[in-house]
Amino acid sequence: MTGSDQNGTRLRVLAVANQKGGVGKTTTAINLGTALAAIGERVLVVDLDPQGNASTGLGVSPEARSRTAYDVLIGSCSLADAAVATAVPGLSIVTANSDLVGIEHDLISDAGRPYKLRDAVTALAGRARANPGQPSFSYILIDCPPSLNLLTLNALAAANAVIVPVQCEFFALEGISQLKDSIDQIRATLNPRLEIQGVVLTMHDARTSLSREVADNVRAFFGPKVYESVIPRNTRVAEAPSHGKPILLYDYDCAGSQAYIRLATEIIERERQTKAA
To answer: Which pTM value belongs to this model?
Structure first.
């Protein structure tokens, strides 16, 4: 869902999704959000995973999650009211907890259940237009759970585009065509404007032939949709969430931080091309 305020700020919604777990979705969402905020964008991360890892990774303790994505989806509060500021200037998060596990049951009789997040995004864009003097978000990044459930459907129905992290390991190619089919199905039913913004190769180990082979196969499948920037397997990236910090705050100079900065630059360039089109 794209909206513009009266100052010309255009809200872009990007879902970080892959039906496979452990591919770096959360790490990509929080570090991309940090990198975008560092170059002056105002970013809102929406944590849609009941495990709440994005919330933890951005330093929001479980006790501080009084209003969560669950409350937004059931309509008891807005995205703006649920947003919590992080230690990164310009970066906020709508947190998550295990309440999200029950969302399918709680919305079972609601015919509009796939569109709850889209409606909340529309309301956020409307609020920005109604208050042109107030700061407004330019990006929403949605961290999706590792399955095509109601939460992911809400993310894809609300999004302009999808960023797909793909892990450079043996089983990574499993389900890639299934994911693309799912995105095509969402485009045909819930969101005709949905597109793949790009595919990011994660946990890449340049020393192994397997990583290189997987990277080559993914590039052959998705072509120019695959970003040139590759996220390396990096101990510091793995450590950062346990300290409640994005890698750019935890260790700015490490290889993982620099890779996410390059990735953010690529994504911004693609976004500029999209906006100019």
So the answer is: 0.93
**Alpha-carbon span 112 to 162, nearest angstrom:** 22
Closest-CA residue to 16 (of 1, 35, 36, 32): 32
Q: Under DSSP, is residue 230 helix (H, G, I), strand (E, B) or coil?
A: strand
Q: What's the Cα-to-Cα distance from 277 to each of 158, 224, 236, 272, 274, rounded to whole Å? A: 21, 17, 38, 9, 5
Any idea where the domains of the chain sit in the sequence?
3-276
**Closest CA relative to residue 232, chosen from 257, 267, 265, 197:** 257
Question: Over the stretch 157-185, which tens digit does the pLDDT of each residue have?
Answer: 999 999 999 988 877 777 677 788 889 99
Domain spanning 3-276: which superfamily? Answer: P-loop containing nucleotide triphosphate hydrolases (3.40.50.300)
207's enclosing H/E stretch is none
User: DSSP letters of 98-166?
Assistant: GGGGGHHHHTTT-TTGGGHHHHHHHHHHHHHHH-TTS---SEEEEE--SSSSHHHHHHHHH-SEEEEEE
- For residue 94, the cross-strand partners are 46
pLDDT at 3 exceeding the cut of 70: no
